[in-house]
Description:
The chain is mainly alpha-helical. It has helices spanning 2-14, 17-35, 41-48, 57-82, 91-102, 106-139, 144-161, 166-181, 206-224, 244-266, 273-286, 299-322, 328-339, 348-351, 353-374, 378-383, 389-408, 411-429, 435-457, 463-467, 469-497; strands spanning 183-184, 191-192. A two-stranded antiparallel sheet has the order 1-2.
Amino acid sequence: MDAIQSLLAGFDTALTPMNLLWALIGVTLGTLVGVLPGIGPALTVALLLPVTAKLPPVSAFIMFAGIYYGGMFGGSTTSILLNTPGESSSIITALEGNKMARKGRAAAALATAAIGSFIAGTIGTVLLTFAAPAIADIAVQIPPGAKFALILLAFVTISATFGGSPLRGLISLLFGLTIGLVGTDLQSGQARFTLGFPELLDGIEFVTVVIGLFAVGETLYVASRLRKGGANVIKLAGNARMNREDWRRSWKPWLRGTALGFPFGAVPAGGAEIPTFLSYTLEKKLSKHPEEFGQGAIEGVAGPEAANNAAAAGVLVPLLTLGLPTSATAAILLAAFQQYGLQPGPLLFITNTDLVWGLIASLYIGNVMLLALNLPLAPVWARLLLIPRPFLYAAILVFSTVGVYSLNNSVFDLYLLALFGVIGYGMRRFDFPVTPAIIGVVLGPAAESLFRTAMQQSSGDVGALLRQPLTAFLLLVVLAALVVPQVLKVRARRRSAQP
């Protein structure tokens, strides 16, 4: 009952005219960036961090939430009409959805993706409404040592999940942790990793890092490959719509995809990629038309799209209750909280009730807005795919530069932006995932602070961490996450080498 009462109070906040306007701006921008290839919600929220610094926190996060959910909705358009997944979680949608579009069924593919996203997003938000307060009540009692171990677990699992190589993921994480430690140590007063530059004594602005790695790095990477072929966009005639048979074949995959996606999104390193692949495999096994898979099966679009959006709702559970981001967008949202002097976690539900519940309530509103935007306006969004890439990425580069310069009016920040842009390009070029680096920058200082607090409470006794049952268990899981996959790989190699 407390959750329902809090949610109703949240609707009072979210339904004010200004916050409704920000929600509409957010979902429209989110759909826009989801449709445009290579631009996602993480990059968009990062670009808007300098602009929204003067906004009230509730309004800013309602807009950010709209961008986040809108990006999940809009990503299916690119996958279906262009066969170019903007996010790794949309690969399966491209596999079946583009085949449907080539058979003249683009409208049905877009409709099942949009309606499935709405259903999954709404169910996921309901689960978030009731799960988040319960987890927050438990999380208040977690000691600093266990919170430190939990962050370590997130570091290891996220580094191993993103990208093709766990080693590259860990290197990316180490780079992010190093950047997060630049500046003056508040406890000892010592300068760390400043290389003699006084401008670095206060640390590096997170916005500079994330815009450099995401926006500038992506722009350089796309520009280096722009001449490798033009876009082949399938034309869409009329609105997104489904016939009775499409509805019959889609509603069960929507529900099954939702059931798979939410729990994966809510755990560290779960993400949306695994449940979308699991949903596709499950639908193929359960389908009465398995021969259509690989040729344009509507179940292969409905299930994975629902799993994708349910996972997006699940990601907000650890972010709001524990302060743990499990995706790139969640990491940037965490940085946005810190920009306002807020720390997501169990106390956020007590100290900033209006913000938390206004944000959750806005997710329900945003889902309805997104359905209204995506079904009748599908041809409009499809036309956005015809925007020339050079114009698009040149605009991103200009906006990135202006946004970073506006933070401190510092030319030195522009040099840092260019440096991180080149590093971001190199990471993409050599297949180093960017997400672990971003999470390292955001969570590194928090992990250091929690470790120091735990050491102060135990008078410097590191062994005290192992004597706390929860902390010891989490550290054991961290060790298993590092060792077990390697052991399994060695065993697999030995078995394959045997005659």
